[in-house]
Specification:
This protein is of the alpha/beta class and 309 residues long. The protein has one domain (18-306): Vaccinia Virus protein VP39 (Rossmann fold, 3-Layer(aba) Sandwich), CATH 3.40.50.150. Helices cover 38% and strands 13% of the residues. The chain has helices at residues 18-33, 45-51, 72-97, 114-117, 132-144, 167-170, 192-205, 229-238, 242-245, 254-260, 270-277, 302-306, and strands at residues 103-107, 125-130, 152-157, 179-183, 211-217, 264-268, 292-298. The chain has a 7-stranded mixed sheet with strand order 3-2-1-4-5-7-6, sandwiched between helices. Helix 4 (114-117) links the parallel strand 1 and strand 2. Helix 1 (18-33) crosses helix 2 and helix 1 packs across helix 3 (72-97). The protein is globular.
């Protein structure tokens, strides 16, 4: 096990530190849900935002953003999260509908409501790994809405700084069955050794036929973008200094690590999907999104390995 504790970690649920970034993503999903050209809908997102004192006055509807899409935070950055939500929703649903996977693992699930809002095939189980404080907040808000999950939902309250690999089998996860993993908006907060440990743990728990999507940042020097409109607006408008929360050490090549172990992996910029869907952010000068990459990987089934696929 790798000790992943570092100065940016906060243990107060969604009240501060990295935890409050889950509220930022929830606000972005709420805004996206109310757009006439929405790429993804999450009817629960605004309830998370309103339930937390830290975000109670944030916008959850585009009409509450006076400068609209010209606002770097609630315009461009929020559209980024809306696009990311759609792309990763599609990835998960393709894995269960086409790939036949029935185990879904959300690593660092945060305020993700996919167990409640996506149309899962029968037999799907959604495991949500996060700290108990985050899961308790989510449970309280969703319970107040009488929300009903559309798949079997298994919260896994554990700290990703601990040996969480042992926690999953104890709650019914079967390492011998294919699974689809999602690591959304998490790795750039972790030290490099912790990212490598996480990727290795996922690889070790994945049977053939499994799939994984994760997000990374590949800039050599994140501080070059400190005065970018996106980071500046986030600091000034809601008091979150993302660069203070990110781990600034050089990142490992996690996609390459998986391919070395027999996985197939493709690496994309978010802008690839903006062009595909016709909505979302495009490159701009001094762009804090320039180094963001979305990685999609699959582990071949034993028969495919035998055929050299």
């Amino acid at each position: 096990m790798v000790d992943t504790a570092h100065r940016n970690t906060d243990d107060t649920g969604v009240a501060g530190g990295v935890g409050v970034t889950a509220l930022l993503v929830a606000a972005a999903r709420a805004l996206e849900s109310h757009r006439s050209d929405s790429l993804a809908r999450d009817v629960y997102a605004e309830h998370f935002v309103r339930a937390a004192p830290a975000s109670a006055d944030w916008p959850v509807h585009p009409c509450q953003v006076p400068d609209g899409d010209a606002n770097p935070l609630w315009g461009r950055f929020a559209r980024y999260f809306g696009l990311r939500t759609r792309v990763l929703d599609d990835f998960l649903l393709r894995s269960v509908r086409v790939g036949g996977v029935r185990q879904v693992v959300l690593v660092g699930a945060g305020l993700d409501a996919r167990a409640f809002r996506l149309d899962w095939p029968p037999g799907c189980v959604v495991f949500e790994i996060d700290r108990k404080e985050v899961l308790a907040f989510k449970h309280r808000v969703l319970g107040g809405l009488s929300a009903t999950p559309r798949a079997a939902r298994v919260p896994v309250p554990t700290d990703l700084r601990a040996d969480w690999a042992d926690a999953l089998p104890r709650v019914g996860f079967d390492p011998a069955a294919p699974s689809v993993w999602l690591v959304e908006g998490l790795l750039f907060y972790l030290p490099p050794a912790a990212e490598t440990y996480l990727i290795d743990t996922v690889e070790g728990l994945s049977a053939g036929g499994s799939a994984l999507a994760f997000e990374v940042k590949l800039e050599k020097d994140l501080l070059e973008y400190r005065d970018s409109p996106l980071y500046t607006a986030t600091r000034e408008q809601i008091g979150i200094d993302l660069l203070d929360l990110f781990d600034l050490a050089p990142r490992p090549d996690s996609a390459g690590r998986l391919t070395d172990r027999g996985w197939s992996a493709s690496v994309h910029t978010p802008f690839d999907f903006t062009r595909l869907h016709g909505r979302g952010p495009l490159p701009e000068p001094n762009d804090a999104l320039a180094g963001n990459r979305w990685v999609f990987a699959e582990k071949p089934r034993p028969a495919e390995v035998g055929r050299g696929v």
